[in-house]
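OP here, attaching both records as promised.
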Amino acid sequence: MDFIFNYTDYSFFSIMYFLLLFGICLKIILDTQSPSKALAYIFLVVIFPLFGIIFYFSVGINYRKQRLYRKKLNLDEKAYPELEKKVLKFSSSILEKNKIKLKNFYPLAQFSNLENLTSDNNQVQLLVNGEEKFPSLIDSIKNAKHHIHIEYYIYENDDIGTEIGELLMGKAKQGVEVRFIYDDFGSKSIRKKFIQNLKNEGVETMPFYKVKLMYFANRLNYRNHRKIVVIDGIVGYVGGINVSDKYYNNGKKDLFWRDTHLKITGVSVLNLQHTFLTDWNFCAKQDIPFSKDYFPIQQENKDFGNQLVQIIASGPDSNHATIMYSLIQAIMLSEKEVLITTPYFIPEKTFLDALIMTRLRGVTIKIIVPYSSDSLFVNTTCRSYYQDLLEAGIEVYLYKKGFIHAKTMVCDEFVSIVGTANLDNRSFDLNFEVNATVYDDKLAKEMKQNFENDLKNSEKINLESWKSRPLYIKALEKIAHLCSPLL
């Protein structure tokens, strides 16, 4: 009887286990758009049941589909018609006026809505590494008159972080509105004393999606990777450089850090402002309204320059993977050359296919990636993609001078893309990101020259040598590749 009871008991729990497993696998299939990602989650759940189930419910839920993050920008009845009128004006007149200038990239510039309009009244300055970015940013902060909006994934309490923090507190004392968003995970070192000091001096601070123990894995997965500064609605900064001494090549550290940022002066800063304020309202649970204080309409009458700029933001708060789509479109519209720099190359299959298809029709494509990454596993996963690129004729270079953290693309010596998004699933689908697309020959030539300078510090991968690397390395890369949809 004991044997029968134990057998029956075992059968009951087996049936319950398989029903649970079946239900979770069905949920994965229904909720996950990417087949490769769905298969990866199913593999984890079936082979490592407890770990796989916890992992999926922690980081696998599609929050863009569930719309748990919502943009908030309070538009009163008087302001909204004015804003709507501006949108129609921008979408029709700006693009039509610049149709000839945009050439084959006109469809990319049409990739616009309320949040990522293209404006031709801008001046853009290329900032290479922290030693160019930080002095420029400090000068702009000192000249702020009405407000400073600052948002970073990583902000550290070191020399440069302290210097900028003291400036922010000083401006707040002068009556300038200062709002500061920091990612609660990326900037965890400043959570206590540094943030409290800012608050005490009148700086409004907000952590983005505060990491709490109960929701640790879930909240850890969806991070604000944006680096945005907006000053008086006229001057803006965007790019790959966070606030940390490691981005400053001043001879005080061993590792050289290569990165790229942009300073934008002009009408397109309004789009950076829109992105910041929607993030702020989400974090602070406030309803800062659309107003001329933050969106100075009068700046349209000023002549800042003639560079066309488009700000594109995406994340779990957007309906589509807008940044990925814009990058793919830029690649597919290119006719001569595509130059890419990225610290992490773990792309969606559609992105990889776009690169290969573009190369097969004769477009030169060169990609610079780090020789070694800050993560051995991520570096191994990235390397699992290189052979497909090389066999298609795409040139891949390993940067050896230090760590290359820039996220840039230059197409046909005309389109320059600089921003916060890496070429991986996390940036395309999970993180809050923002890129600037600039349609301008002058900037593109500067970007290309910097790319060529980086090539001098890089080693080109030879296809035959790459194929002959040891079998165990190939095996490790293939195993790591299985996890690429989850990274």
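Record two, same layout:
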Amino acid sequence: MENRVLQGLKPERPLYYFEEICKIPHGSRNTRQISDYLVGFAKEHGLRWVQDEVNNVVIYKDGTPGYEHHPTVILQGHMDMVAEKTKDSPIDFLTDGLELRTDGELIWAEGTTLGGDDGIAVAYALAILEDDRIPHPPLECVFTVDEEIGMDGAAALDPALLQGRVFINCDSEAEGILTVSCAGGATSGLHLPVKIDRAEGKGIHIYVDGLLGGHSGAEIHKGRANSNKLMGELLAALLKKLPYRLVYVRGGQKDNAIPRYTMAKIIVAENRLQDALGEIDEISAQLMRTLPKEETKAKITREACVCRGRAMSIASTRKTVGLLSEVPNGIQSMSQDIPGLVQTSLNLGILKTEGETVSMTFSVRSSVNEEKLALIERLKQAGEKYGAAYTENGAYPAWEYRKDSPLRDLMVRVFEELYGRKPVVEAIHAGLECGLFSGKLPGLDCVSFGPDMQDIHTTRERLSIASTARTWKYLLAVLARL
């Protein structure tokens, strides 16, 4: 008999499908297998389906008796996950499933992200599609790919596949919150050409490690340190103390994840090695004092290492450090209309040196289109100052607040009936696919919700079992009233 980690936990069928999903590699850009699984599910249950060329899947189901002629409802979530792991994790995200763990209250994956964002949406939809006893209107269940790297799947989806204009998205991470608006954004890149030539001296590795990291939209307001920018501050301060040549600098793996780890290698004159090590220690101590109190595991370390004989020129070193230290990062403005809402921000999520190019990749977000464009223009100008080329992809529109929303009003009423209290109705700074769908489907009425999750996009990600059960019950109650 197959050993199931989540067996016996409730809600039984959603968690069954969640565990099935976790067995399948489904990091962003690696979605063919999970997409085919969904197609296989549709075939097995005799449901009409469409799989497009980028691996998006739509599964259709008629309304149950008494609901056949009700307005069609779109249930939507994304099938890809942020694939992050600890340094010692043996998991290969291209070929391996996740190693689930539970204590009966929370679910997590050993050494990796869990992918509750957004595997739980897929699991909910499959559990509804398989069960003819659940009352619901006609359904269009939309499973998109590559949401985590720019919402590419939603951008590519043909809107002609969808007739519904009532849209329930399950890509939120806090029970009791109904999201009704989100920021638009883009993935921006700066690419600085550098000159590499022979270098003599002593090498030094510098490490910024142990930061909290997190989601660059949902957690940007928490003020968590960015390891790439922290390294930039250190390198800039060191350059004012003594000359050195940069060999490389790299940190972060996802543009929309606040980076936790960055490393650099420099070369100094042989007779300045001890001076350099001392200066790095002094600068590091100063920087550590500036970090938020929550960054309890943060550390900056250095070690002497072998000099391989090649490094950036002094001019290229100065350009790289100058650009890295000058580019904006973090919150740029707060909303004047919604208290506590970040209006515009960016995150330097990926920093890498490849050959003769240093690249910086940013997740840019704003609920005000003009501010997003102005921030992108700042990045372009910073790049031009140092000779870096600008690139952009994955741009997506903001999901604007709809004053008249029958779906929102219904979901508020059902929540009050089930929970005995009012839900929080809010806008968020993180991007949601609702923005792209609202642009494709005129008149779309959207709400996003979901169960409690902790530390998404990190190896500390946790999914609450009790919240998953309550949210499941809530979703079924909403569908029964539509």
